[in-house]
Automatic annotation (TrEMBL):
The keyword Transmembrane helix is assigned to this record: yes
Compartment list: Cell membrane
Entry protein name: Putative MFS family arabinose efflux permease
Topological type in the membrane: Multi-pass membrane protein
Domain of life: Bacteria
Residue stretches in coiled coil: none
Length: 447
């Protein structure tokens, strides 16, 4: 990937488009991770049960994971600008509703619809980048975009602690303010397009895929076996429908694009490891060490190193070593960070946690942007929304699996500390296969 800085240089209008879309992906990452630190305060204020509180997270995951493929394909068929602006407005409305909620069910509803909006926004924003930029400028834009998205995940933990210290409702109101700014700017800078439909929408495919995704995410989040069986049955029906559809939601040929299946598997494993790590760290710091939400957020601040390094350092490393090698190095860094957490005990302080948080921040610096590029390379413009939907679906399913795995394993311990030590094995068990799978891709490319 030998490109010069001149060929990768972006123009003024291109920077405008990129900054708006970076604002949207930062907002999505922020919205996912803000909530974790605020949950105890939400439970106390609204009087929610532990089961009800779990639905604050599960509802978002259901909406996000269930509608991602549909969101990506809708962008291709209906027009990316139209879909982006519409669902960004929905995000503003329902995130604000969450902040105003006086009852648990209102908050859960708001989180579900916010998750649905993210399911449309995320693949649409990615497809706008991949169809607006080309060549070296495309790779540079995606590295910046991926780095900013990763920063949203890590800085959300810090911001969540700061906002919760003021009041948990600000965890909802702050994203609304940012989303409004992005919405106003988007109207001015996002290029117009007409979509690539020109025919019928695959209603049967959309219904079976979305239903199957919803049930599978429900099974993962709640451990519901009937939902797992139903989800698999609907996905089997989806495969049959797609083979017979004249204009399928997911064209089978797109899965034969070089490296696409592999990078989606890597994304699933990486997301599971990262969100599992994040949950173990937060619960350990608050429930074992007794740290406040603010202290927890500040302790994880170093993970936000990717906010600075991903847009600046990663492009140079990619030009020197290539996408897959840089991504693999990031995944190995993540695994080392997760393994460090296996040593937690009651006497730990900030400096004992520091290496783990730093290594995970470096992992996001190196891995997230290159994964995004590989996941959309070689796919036709008319299917970029679909490619983004597949990639983000993998990422979201991985996150749900990681959280569910950590929660289940932590319950096996006789004490909270013992449980979190055991649960720390989950990120390692997902992170190492992710690195090995990526390194296999690196060997094939160099062969």
């Amino acid at each position: 990937m030998a490109t010069t800085d001149t060929t990768a240089r972006l123009g003024g209008r291109e920077w405008g488009v990129l900054l708006v879309l970076c604002g949207a992906i930062f907002l999505e990452g922020l919205d996912v991770s803000l909530m974790g630190v605020a949950l105890p305060s939400i439970q106390a204020d609204l009087g929610m049960t532990a089961g009800g509180l779990q639905w604050v997270i599960s509802a978002y995951v259901l909406g996000y994971g269930g509608f991602m493929l549909l969101g990506g394909r809708a962008a291709d068929l209906l027009g990316r600008r139209r879909v982006f602006l519409c669902w960004l407005a929905v995000f503003v409305a329902f995130s604000g509703l969450g902040g105003l909620a006086q009852d648990g069910w209102v908050l859960i509803l708001a989180r579900f619809v916010t998750g649905v909006s993210a399911a449309f926004l995320t693949p649409t924003g990615l497809s706008i980048i991949t169809t607006t930029f080309d060549g070296p400028r495309r790779d540079r834009a995606l590295l910046v975009y991926g780095g900013v998205g990763a920063a949203g995940f890590t800085l959300g933990m810090v911001a969540g602690g700061l906002l919760t210290a003021v009041g948990w409702r600000w965890v909802f109101f702050a994203p609304v303010a940012l989303a409004l700014l992005v919405l106003v700017a988007s109207v001015r800078v996002i290029p117009r397009d007409t979509g690539h439909g020109g025919g019928r929408f695959d209603v049967a495919g959309a219904a079976t895929a979305t239903g199957g995704m919803l049930l599978l995410v429900l099974a993962i989040a709640e451990g519901a076996w009937p939902a797992l069986v139903g989800g698999l049955a609907l996905l089997a029906a989806f495969a049959v429908v797609e083979r017979r559809a004249a204009e399928p939601l997911v064209r089978a040929g797109v899965l034969r694009v070089r490296g696409l299946v592999r990078v989606n598997l890597v994304a699933l494993l990486f997301a599971g490891s990262f969100f599992g790590f994040q949950l173990v760290a937060v619960l350990y710091l608050q429930q074992v060490l007794g740290w406040s939400a603010l202290e927890t957020g500040l302790a994880l601040l170093v993970s936000g190193v990717d906010a600075v390094l991903a847009p600046t350092l990663t492009p140079h490393l990619v030009r020197r070593f290539g996408l897959v090698r840089v991504m693999t190095a990031g995944l190995l860094s993540a695994t080392a960070g997760y393994a460090w957490l296996l040593r937690i005990d009651e006497g730990w302080g900030y400096w004992q946690l520091f290496p783990s948080a730093l290594l995970v921040g470096l992992a996001l610096t190196l891995a997230y942007g290159p994964m995004t590029i590989v996941a959309t390379t070689g796919v036709a413009d008319a299917e970029q929304g679909l490619a983004g939907g597949l990639y983000n679906t993998s990422f979201q399913f991985g996150a749900a699996l990681g959280v569910a795995g950590v929660t289940a394993v932590a319950a096996l311990g006789d004490t909270p500390l013992e449980g979190y030590r055991l649960a720390a094995l989950v990120p390692v068990a997902a992170g190492l296969p992710a690195a090995l799978t990526a390194s296999r891709g690196a060997r094939r490319r160099s062969a």
